[in-house]
Fold this protein.
Amino acid sequence: MCGGRGVSHDAQAGFSLPPLVKLMKERKEMLDWRGFWDRAVYETKRLLRPVQPTAVSGLGAMPNGVGTAFRVWAPHADKVFVTGSFNDWSPWRAPLAAENNGFWSADVPHATVGDTYKILLHHQGELFLRADPYTRALDGAHGNSVITRDAFTWDDDTFQMPEAADLVIYELHVGTFAADSPAQIGTFAGVQERLPYLRDLGVNAIELMPVMEFAGDYSWGYNPAQPFAITRTYGGREALQQLVKAAHAHGIAVIVDVVYNHFGPQDLDLWRFDGWHEDGKGGLYFYNDWRSKTPWADTRPDYGRSEVRQYIGDNVRMWLTEFHVDGLRWDATNYIRNAHGHDGDRGADIAEGWQLMQTINAEVQAQFPGKLLIAEDLQQNPWLTKPVAENGAGFTAQWDAAFVHPLRQALITPDDELRDVTAVAAALSFTYNQDPFARVIYTESHDEVANGKARVPEEIAPGQADTIYARQRAALGAALVFTAPGIPMIFQGQEFLESGWFDDHVPLDWRKAEANAGMCQFYRDLMTLRHDNFGISRGLRGAQINVYHVNDEAKLLAFHRWDNGGPRDDVVVIANFSHRAIESYAVGMPRSGLWRVRLNSDDRAYDASFGSHYCPDPVAAAPRSAMLRLDDMPFFANVTLAPYSVLILSQD
């Protein structure tokens, strides 16, 4: 879900543009008789030889060595010009020709890479000065578009996204991830410097909260003003390319959050782009009826217009081709497919939005196989991850509300008696379309730790996140994230028990990574088991789960994970959701013999306050008589569990 700040439509309309008289005064052309004469001569020549559309395909500014071809969609404009540093910001020297299909274009000599410009549109006697909707960069001072050419060298970047069963995602916000103080804003270069840390932790995919241009310097990023431009606040276009290339060299995939459920609303040049609008709405890029309204602004794109669909599709292609990203996480897809953002309201469904997702996802899967397409829908709708051929939306995975909400509730509930272990059991085994890897599972994300919510330890013990119970239960939740079937994800700083809530002005406190080094080791051990690095826990990469023991009275559950089964494959996870230690507790086991304790979350190595109860290692599983079968399992073992702890067992 988004975290942008809204503005009124009057404020949006107020972005509008200096009139031509003001522009000419600024350039001193109005009082310059020589400029007046030049213009008269120019206009005479133009009437005799009208400007011609460019033969170059594409949209935006396209440098060609001798100048730049420009093309823009403005079907309601009467005239369109390009004004910029290459023509001394003349309002008339660079006209674009109408292509009779709503597009305007021309080849402009002398306009070259590095020049800044804007689009000047005439509509019914009014003038509008806009940034190019397809601009790849903006200058810092005036918000002018910049002519760019992609010259980045990728060398032999042939990185392949790890398979879903092996993925571990680390969600981060560039602006706060690598900053040292609230007065400093993090950068792509800062993230790049910490790639070795993430690699050594066991992360093999980072998910960047939105990095396209947004209003101001501080933002979550979910208020995109220019979807094709990379924010200069974080370092700009080439710095992002450098980050992706470096991440790939470290074996780390890069996923980028994209926002197509709304644009802006601040600094939004798309608003009434060519002057036309209806009912006080946003004009040609947006719905101009009841479908325009979203929780963030009246700026839902008009998915019914082919040009808007092309605009969004071109943006998707840009991320995959120009930045080599390995996946896209679509923000709030429920607001693309339904005006009110939820199921059960068929009258508010937006069929065109569903079709947009289908079309783009089908194209990506055909042309860019292996890319991860994640939906943040949070409605537990299986159709999001069904194939397009079956009329699904075609996403490969979706953030799973059916996992995070029951598990977080069980972790943060103060009283043991009120913990719903049965709901946790259901969350562990939930799937979309019988595919366990069609879901992303987590206890913390940018949404779950803000907007009135906080980090898990903070939710457990507000203002006392360092207490032992807060630490134990946070570790308990993390252990279930990495042992349940699905794609596990953590949010920045979760591994060193960052407290409070997420704020785009407050950087991570990296001192906690040293202070809580044991907890970082705990996450490292979890990821090692998840990846099966030592060949002793293959079942955690498998698709199978059997939650076979659920004791809601004792607040304890156990489940079996496996791929093909057998020693070094079968994994048994036992979790205690109670503050009471459990001594010599009998639990069913899938195989006989010795089971090694691969991880005990109560190990003192993870926290000096832990270590009150150790389970014997190894644990012996023995046959059970037919009349006394336990958990419908042929074998049983006795285990010891510390309060709020997890055991992970497997066989040699």
